[in-house]
Design goal:
Blueprint (H helix, E strand, L loop, with lengths): L1 E6 L8 H10 L5 E6 L10 H7 L1 H10 L4 E5 L1 H16 L3 H12 L3 E5 L1
Amino acid sequence: MVLYFGCRAPDIDLYSDEWREYPKDLGGNFKIYTAFSSVQGKEKVYVQHLLSGHREMVRKEIVDDGGYVYICGYAKSMAKSVEDVLRNIVGDGQEGDAELQLLKMRKRLQLDVW
């Protein structure tokens, strides 16, 4: 299981203690990548930046290995940006659009956004 998690800063991450326990609880089958957008003195990092940086791994997990994607958060900008990056990862142009629609139709891409 791979989790990409983003929030404004590490000190407001309500789940940070839990994240550290998951690799042990899941027998090492858990990896988390965190993105923080408002850490003073540091460049903004968003989940979509991390996904882009892990393009090959993300494509393999979703397309080749049949992985599932859950996007949770702010619908207006975050969800759209993450979907745009995923679209480019799973295929080029219309192929990416078709693959994203197929993932949604098969319930392998779920959104819980507000």
